């Protein structure tokens, strides 16, 4: 979720007229660590005058920064605006985080079922099945049914 917030901050900086290098440098201070180092690396390379395609290729090694680097390289080649694309990327990251949280909650529900079953199954057998079997056995053995 913090990655999506960092992408929103980059998008807001770009919408305010900042360059991608300045936006990446500003957001790197508050971004989560794998993304922060990737943003710092890209911003530093751009500040040193590196070609944007080359600068953002080094960021593509980070899994969180890979989509951002792909967008930055495409924007550098075509001159298109990145603000809307980064906003969409943030929305995708939020959906992915929500899906991950739902999956973890569902897994927890399944994992809780095992110990509960192990605790309640013996009680069900002792209090529900054993008295019925004893009652039936008493009736059958005393000659009531046969």
Automatic annotation (TrEMBL):
This is Type II secretion system protein F. The chain crosses the membrane at residues 120-141. Its main location: membrane. Keywords: Cell membrane, Membrane, Transmembrane, Transmembrane helix. It comes from the Bacteria. The keyword Oxidoreductase does not apply. It comes from Rhodococcoides trifolii. PANTHER family: INTEGRAL MEMBRANE PROTEIN-RELATED, POSSIBLE CONSERVED ALANINE RICH MEMBRANE PROTEIN. InterPro entries: T2SS_GspF_dom. Residues 7-126 form the Type II secretion system protein GspF domain. GO terms for cellular component: plasma membrane. It is found in: Cell membrane.
């Amino acid at each position: 979720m913090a990655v999506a917030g960092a992408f929103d901050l980059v998008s807001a900086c770009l919408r305010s007229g900042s360059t991608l290098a300045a936006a990446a440098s500003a957001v790197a201070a508050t971004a989560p660590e794998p993304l922060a180092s990737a943003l710092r690396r890209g911003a530093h390379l751009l500040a040193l005058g590196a070609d944007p395609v080359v600068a953002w290729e080094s960021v593509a090694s980070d899994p969180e920064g890979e989509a951002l680097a792909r967008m930055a390289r495409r924007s550098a080649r075509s001159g298109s605006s990145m603000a809307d694309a980064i906003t969409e990327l943030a929305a995708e990251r939020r959906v992915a985080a929500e899906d991950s949280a739902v999956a973890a909650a569902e897994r927890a529900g399944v994992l809780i079922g095992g110990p509960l079953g192990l605790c309640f199954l013996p009680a069900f057998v002792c209090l529900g099945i054993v008295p019925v079997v004893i009652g039936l056995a008493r009736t059958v053995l005393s000659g009531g049914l046969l």
